[in-house]
Each structure stands twice: as structure tokens, then as C-alpha cells.
Amino acid sequence: MFIREASIADYPQLRQIYLESRRESFHWVNADEMSLEDFDRDTSEEQILLAEENDQVLGFASLYVPNRFIHNLFVHPAAAGRGVGDLLLKSAVAELGTPVTLKCVSENHKALSFYKKRGWRAVVEEGEPGAKYWVLVYE
């Protein structure tokens, strides 16, 4: 498994990963409102790193470089538990430098645990009721 920067040729696989991952884990959102086009909108103006193995994209991280911010980190459900997210997270931090921040939906307990186990610190919970998220920092 290796990490590389995404190209436009990778977008069909990236769109699918984004859609399938959210449909499986975002229980607080109506899955019928999600679409493949969400990926393009939600990663606009971001650098995208992807994890690949045997010509198969396993996951990605999208980075908003000017703010040292990890906007998205998604692993295909079939690749969960194989270290993909950990490798993407480490690569994103290496690319951005520290301190680096990200936001994690408060309802996403599995993701919050993932980040905290890797040394991320929850700084503040923000957002409206029903749409709360934690700001996390890695220094």
C-alpha cells in the first residue's frame, strides 16, 4: 500500500469511496440525499492524497493546505481495519506540518476514538444542535 497525490483519473473511484463510506457510517444523515457529485463539491480547491494497493484506491484524505486543515478522511468500507486511515492521516500530517487541525462530527464516535488514539486532542465542540462537531488538533 502506498500514498500518492490523486489525479482527475482517480475521481470515479474517489467519488464511490466518499459515497459508500458516508452511507455506511453517517447514520445521522439521510443516505438518499447523498450523491457521487458530493465529492467534487466537498473537495474543491483541496489537495487530495490517496491510498492505493494493486491499482485499487482504498481511501483518501483531502487537505486545505493554506489552513493546515484535513477536511476529509475516508476509507472504503471493504478496506477498513487494514491501516489505510492511519497511513493517510500520517501522510497528511507530514504534508501539512504541525500544528494541523480537523473537524469531526460529534455523532461520529468511531472516528473521534480513531483520532484520539493517535494523539489528536479535542479542543472545542462547535455547531448548531443536530450538527455539532469537534475541532481536533495535532501538534
Word description of this protein:
With 139 residues, the chain is of the alpha+beta class. The chain has a single domain (2-138), classed as Aminopeptidase. It has helices at 11-25, 38-42, 84-96, 109-117; strands at 2-5, 47-53, 56-64, 69-75, 100-105, 121-126, 133-138. A seven-stranded mixed beta sheet has the order 1-2-3-4-5-7-6, sandwiched between helices. The longest helix has 15 residues, at 11-25. It is globular, with a radius of gyration of 14 Å. The model has no long low-confidence stretch (mean pLDDT 91).
Brief summary of the model shown:
The protein is an alpha+beta fold. Helix content is 30%, strand content 32%.
Q: State the helix count.
A: 4
Report the span from N to C terminus.
26 Å
CATH topology descriptor: Aminopeptidase
Biggest sheet details: 7 strands, mixed
Choose one word for the global shape. globular
Helix and strand pattern: EHHEEEHEHEE
By DSSP, the count of extended strands is: 7
Strand proportion, as a percent range, falls in 25-35%
Number of domains as seen in the coordinates? 1
What is the CATH class name?
Alpha Beta
Structural class: alpha+beta
Look at the structure and name the CATH superfamily: Gcn5-related N-acetyltransferase (GNAT)
How much is the radius of gyration in Å? 14 Å
- Mean pLDDT equals 91
Low-confidence stretches: none
Domain N-acetyltransferase: 1-139
InterPro entries: Acyl_CoA_acyltransferase (IPR016181), Bact_Acetyltransf (IPR050832), GNAT_dom (IPR000182)
Protein name: GNAT family N-acetyltransferase
Keywords: Acyltransferase, Transferase
